[in-house]
Amino acid sequence: MPIIKPENMNFSGKNLIMIISGLPGTGKTTLALSAPDVLLIDTDKGMARVNPAHRKDASICATYEEVLADLKAAEGQYKTIVIDTCGKLIDYMKDWVVRHPEMFPKGAKTSGGISLQGFGFVKQEFIRLSDELAQKFNVIYLFHETLTKQDEGVFYELLVEGAARTVVWQPADLGAHLFIMNGKRYLGFTPTEQYTAKAAYGIKGLVEVPELADGQPNDFLTKLFSKVRDNLSKESADLAPQKLAYLKAMKEAKEICAAVNAPEDVSEAAKALKMLDHALTSEKESTALLKARIAELNIVWDKAAKAYVYKS
Amino acid sequence: MSISLKVRITKSLLDSWLWAFKRDDGWDDFLSVLHREKKPPTQAMLDGTRFENVLNNVLNGEAIPADHEWVSVIAEMSKDLYGAQQQVTLFQDCEVNGQLFLLHGVLDYLRAGRIWDCKFTKNYHLNKYFWEETSQTAMYLALVPEARDFTYIISDGKYVYRERYPRDIVPPIEPTINNFMQYLKKHGLWDVYCEKWRVNN
What we know:
By secondary structure, chain A is an alpha/beta fold.
């Protein structure tokens, strides 16, 4: 495998996984359709509620096997897959596990329904599917939300079976809560006490989603994804010289620490570490390296003697 | 109020105060931490320590038996953490509203501008360690001003979860420390705090 230097890394083709959650009627499906070249996996009949001017290709699936077949057929034809809704996809996966005991032994309870082990298979399959899809497409998982009461307010929770609520966030690069405030729509990317979210690549806080005027292209997420890739490229380019300096400083710090063999070597080593051209966290890391080396040699600081000595 | 008086502050102390009114035994626990009373570790703490020890042993080159209960999650986590400095003890001066504090923390892992903290929990959900339970994110980013982000790497023994918080979305620690200081002063606990947590040069 060729090694690529940070300054030569290209993120223009990076696929993104994003979660969008919101209460019914906030416009999740229309927003998701603003991503580049979308195929909507419509398990929620969400397309019916979209303005015809903004509709895109859709696959109506009733089982997980049908979802997998349509995703396979979509390869090379679309840039983005929208799963509407992911809660329903998890239900399909549960049904699939229960119907296939030959593949998922003990996946179903004897009394019917999915077992604890079965849910483990669903979690694994969700992560596997996300990994596979992300190699070929951007992926947008849509979730309905429910409101739960907390101490002094409310919390917006993803509408999905409890055990899956955590695992669905794992593959996501970005996650946002879509809501309406004072007549305007916003995506909240920074987690708050009211909702979970995932900020990354410089996309954070509240981002307003403008209303679509007649004839206006529905391209909000296309532009957002483009911004993410630009931010990634810029961050990588900005960090490249720091990373090189960091690696050089850490290499030298390791050599300095390795040369410490007796109490009288410690002060010189500490001075030498300070003199290095530090970058990122190399100064703190090299100090920790020296402390570890001192401990390994059973050396301590003697306050009275004001010198490093062997621990008696 | 004297700037020459420097008091130590840790995320454990701040968290015990943040939780003082949220848990049944929260107030007693806060007073215990404020008075720096030694308490035996809870089972959850012991489980966490055992998990972290296994992880660190693997990071330090030890093999983990193939039939170990945590083999898959330890293997996954060690890929992220390989080469990081472990248990990095740090101090940082911090002046809040005219009072000098010494921030003190022990980072689980530090590497190339990134802080990592390992958590072992049976009841994980997203953002658990951000808003709800801890001042740790803000405190540790204050301890390492040159760090770009803070990542919680979490396991329940079966799965690995990651929560990465870029610096620019994490509120600074100073307002929390200021609220803590004002609370102690208002409720007659400031002197106790200064006595127990004073930094002797």
